[in-house]
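CORE FACILITY INTAKE
Project code: CF-77B
Contact: R.S. (postdoc)
Sample description: multi-component assembly, two entities in total
Requested service: structural model of the whole complex
Turnaround: standard
Below are the sequence entries exactly as provided by the requester. Do not edit them.
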Amino acid sequence: ADAAAMTSARERQAQLTKPAGALGLLEDLSVRLAGVFGTDRPHPRGVAVIVAAGDHGVVAEGVSAYPPEVTAAMVAGFTASTPSGMGGAAVNVIARTVGAKVYVADVGVNAELPTHPALENLKVRMGTRNLRLERAMTADETLQAILAGSDLAGRAIAEGADLLVPGEMGIGNTTPASAVTARMLGASVASVTGRGTGVDDATLARKRQVISAALDRDASHAGDPLGVMADLGGLEIAFMLGVMLRAASERRAIVLDGFVEGSAALVGVALAPELRDYLFPAGQCAETGHAAQLAHLGLTPMFDLGLRLGEGTGGVLAAPMLLSAAATLREMQTFAEASVPDRE
Amino acid sequence: ADAAAMTSARERQAQLTKPAGALGLLEDLSVRLAGVFGTDRPHPRGVAVIVAAGDHGVVAEGVSAYPPEVTAAMVAGFTASTPSGMGGAAVNVIARTVGAKVYVADVGVNAELPTHPALENLKVRMGTRNLRLERAMTADETLQAILAGSDLAGRAIAEGADLLVPGEMGIGNTTPASAVTARMLGASVASVTGRGTGVDDATLARKRQVISAALDRDASHAGDPLGVMADLGGLEIAFMLGVMLRAASERRAIVLDGFVEGSAALVGVALAPELRDYLFPAGQCAETGHAAQLAHLGLTPMFDLGLRLGEGTGGVLAAPMLLSAAATLREMQTFAEASVPDRE
């Protein structure tokens, strides 16, 4: 990030017509956005959410409350024609409300999906392998997924996106997200494994056993982040990593939604520590382990609505706050400009 | 609020394509909005912030970090021509970003303000009297301010507002807000009196002494809410009460910003308990006593950004969340509509 722009932005915030610090976290966010966009008058415009879908071999272990067919059905929902426009899922509806563009990518759904003009067919594989028993992805598959994410993020940026929200849909994907988080943070499985879409106690216990078994099997270590992603991750998680790396490399802000997105971010900052400067966590997600991810990243979320949906929903909800934070730097008058007396 | 619409909305939320409860507080908000708008498909459109300005005789006691001239200067800032449009204050900038309309009213600024087409001259008095020594307002002045708020809210609604954000500007106004809050909640002065725009320890101690003296002087009691408003309140606070009562009576949602707004709401729910159903607290405000107000109202804020600016800024920031919550009920597909398998 641009340290000079951040310094200038911080000085500017102190001159704007409000008591110093009265905009709270919004002031910090505005300074970080100045760093991302390289100016103390940042002007992010377009917001894009890129929803990546993938399936997970580990669902064979019974780790989710929903049948795996839901992944494909939800992808159809993301692109369905409805009376209100394209898509009838939460992310579509919230994106329409705040004016965000929705991109949908099949990076690893375990079904042949009908072609649709709004569905990017970037399928690497029909779902990952069962990570309890073997590596979820090969190194090559992992890279393919990352590059697919990078490419689609590049297109979204070319089409006007300044704030990018990586989102995901994949039944079972909090299991790989927890496994990746446990490995990257060196945290206990129990401390970073929650109920996902809402599993019961017995399923939660099984999910934790499965993740423990995967970690025991797997020889990857946090010093080899791409190895961890391949062994324990998922195709849509690797794809989101690609979105993040591309967005940061093109100096765009990344709005970080929930726990699955957070697992991709942990791998990302291990690969490229500068990525952190481009990450803006949306909400505190209700999933166990999300707080540990944010603590590791050293970043403060904007709200705590108890969301645990994924799809990028929280990230899209947060976009107006980030646009507003940038706008304060860009459009507010200073005490001098407005001839307002400052404090005595 | 419409109980049948709320029941129907709650049932509908359980059928939408997401795990039950996965949208967290957004689901509760959507159900409450169904109650306000009398339908399980609520469609709020326009957002209006009504910023009321007034001065306070109690500033003679040295309770604020800023000189009282700031009130008039900030009103000029709300209507100033800037390269980005009308107004260079935080509320203008955030309202532009999220598409909210800004109304500005002089209900009691202690200066003759230049006329401006966007400034409503609704001045009741050149500021309140010093509440340490005497009643801040007469009963008649209080009613005039309430009616002025009601009238402007009615116009905003006629011009399309479905979400109304009462906002305020008035140097010194956390002092009357704390006095009203202490009286209405029967709370200790220290527990509901904070630093406002950022006063130092000595000023905070003096502010608390002034409020204690006012409470000792004043014979009003919580059972006479309008008496409390007149004795301890402010012109812009009474005006916001009028905005709230009118919005609720026309079945519109009220986005509740910060501590000063909260003091008006306490008086409002004491007058008309149904008002509570129409109130949607935006953020947890950093000012001492705000949490006690929300606990009394039994309402949960949407975020905690550490805002302590007023002007309605937090309320405007929250508007996209409320519009999104309503949109989930209105535009999301059900499991049946989308042919998505529900949980096993």
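Facility notes:
- Chain B touches chain A through 64 residues (CB under 8 Å).
- The CA atoms of residues 226 and 267 of chain B lie 7 Å apart.
Invoice: internal transfer
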